[in-house]
Amino acid sequence: MAFNDLLKQVGGVGRFQLIQVTLVVLPLILMASHNTLQNFTAAIPPHHCRPPAHANLSEDGALEAWLPRDGQGRPESCLRFTSPHSGTEANSTEDTEPCTDGWIYDNSTFPSTIVSEWNLVCSHRALRQLAQSLFMVGVLLGAMVFGSLADRLGRRKVLILNYLQTAVSGTCAAYAPNFPVYCAFRLISGMSLASISLNCMTLNVEWMPIHTRAYVGTLIGYVYSLGQFLLAGLAYAVPHWRHLQLLVSAPFFAFFIYSWFFIESARWYSSSGRLDLTLKALQRVAQINGKQEEGAKLSMEVLRTSLQKELTMGKSQASAMELLRCPTLRRLFLCLSMLWFATSFAYYGLVMDLQNFGVSIYLIQVIFGAVDLPAKFVCFLIINSLGRRPAQMASLLLAGICILVNGVIPQDQTIVRTSLAVLGKGCLAASFNCIFLYTSELYPTVIRQTGLGMGSMMARVGSIVSPLVSMTAELYPTIPLFIYGAVPVVASAATALLPETLGQPLPDTVQDLKGRRRGKRRQQQQEQQKQMVPLRTSAQKNGL
Fold it and tell me: Could you list the mean pLDDT of each consecutive 10-residue stretch along the chain, which spans 544 residues?
């Protein structure tokens, strides 16, 4: 509790916390836009083959003479006749060939997307999913690299680098001359965005007193949901993919500039053994919060006494291998990995296929954002009253059940299926909200960012595997839903193996975790002994 007492001494939740939390959280609005940006920049417009260059449409009987029809009477997207047909011949698929002269796109809804610009359709349609998968690979790499780097260099330095990286790579993607260059810059953007998400949570949590951490986690979740609303509005107002890509990337230059004014986590300084910088950071915060007198009372001697544990145990930074080498950390890592993977796997299985809902893509984006508001509020109430563990288990379990039930609902029940999908998505959004806070509270300071990074890495594995599972729909249409639903249901059981963190101080070292477990066992033994005393007394009386 020593560091928590120091935070209260320099103002608790004061002017500094309000300003820094706001500035750190603000970029997350556009981070949400980047994560699902390809729903709009890679939307597939209606299209059909371009007739041969030698075709004379006025003599051949218009464009339709070159286009075979599918079972519903619509022009085939990937085939054309080798010679003009008319009448009932238009329904035949004989004498057809691929679209060797390219395609004609319906630009009424999407004037320009990467699909229409680089012809990512028909035999090249897998490249569209490749672009999103490479973005998620970047997120995975960013979680691995920058998570560990933030534990060694600090949260502030890594955030500054990530803002600049996102601004430059996102802007370059908007001006990409070809598809490979676009994918490369999207991958680099994914790396930095993963780190921004992790460091935002960590830097804010480490500057806040115990009783306010759930509020910070919920605020971050709501800001992310606000970003989904913003994306729908921006995509509707700016339908050209290059302009939209630039619009959600350029503001990161502003975030890069003001991030130089962030104050590094004093808790990280102390866990790194840098007591002089810890003192400077705390005194600066005290000055901003109007607690100059309290800040003046702090000194190197006071910090040595208050933070003796951090100085003696936290000088050496733990590596990622400690997550597997140390039994206490290994248990946390394996359980949390299951939760991260399941949440992301099911979440992106739902949100990255908006065009298949049969309604306006802009409308479904707004609905998916709107459901987050009540879902995260209910999750916040459970987190604050019952604890993190019940909230995590309930959100994953309910999400899985909604998706599984959706798999047995007939395809023509559009409203019911959409409602269940929206409810499941809301539960998964609440699960994301909880898992960020829960993970940051479970891992000790010396390895917190590395642990968050590894958790995010497992989430990205889930988001990469998710599109592959959707391909099983070719075998049977509802197979993906059964898989998307079963995984979170199974993973929810892992929360039973995790400790509760409601009202607990943040652990700084692995010894803190072991002490917490020993304390829990001691408390259970004391309760058992108390229960045994009346039984012994009753037995003695009966014996007498």
Answer: 74 85 90 84 83 64 69 72 63 69 82 87 80 85 82 88 94 93 93 87 82 79 83 88 93 93 85 82 86 80 71 56 79 90 88 66 79 84 88 92 86 79 88 85 79 82 81 76 90 88 78 67 55 55 54
CB 448 within 8 A of CB 440: yes
The dihedral built from the CA positions of residue 540, 541, 542 and 544, taken in this order, carries a sign that is: positive
DSSP structure string for 238-306: --SHHHHHHHTTTHHHHHHHHGGGPPPPHHHHHHTT-HHHHHHHHHHHHHHTT-HHHHHH--HHHHHHH
Pairwise CA distance, residues 68 & 74, whole Å: 8
Q: Where are the beta strands (DSSP E) in 28-186?
A: 47-49, 79-81, 96-98, 103-105
- Cβ-contact 13, 209 below 8 angstroms: yes
The backbone torsions φ and ψ at residue 224, rounded to the nearest 5 degrees and listed phi first, read -65, -40
What separation, in Å, do the N-terminal and C-terminal C-alpha atoms of the chain show? Answer: 49
Phi, psi of 96 (to 5 degrees): -115, 165
Q: What secondary structure letter does DSSP report for 492? A: G
* CA-to-CA dists, residue 185 to 31, 75, 248, angstroms: 15, 35, 14
- What is the value of pTM for the model shown? 0.74
DSSP code for 320? T
Answer yes or no: are the C-beta atoms of 273 and 315 closer than 8 Å: yes
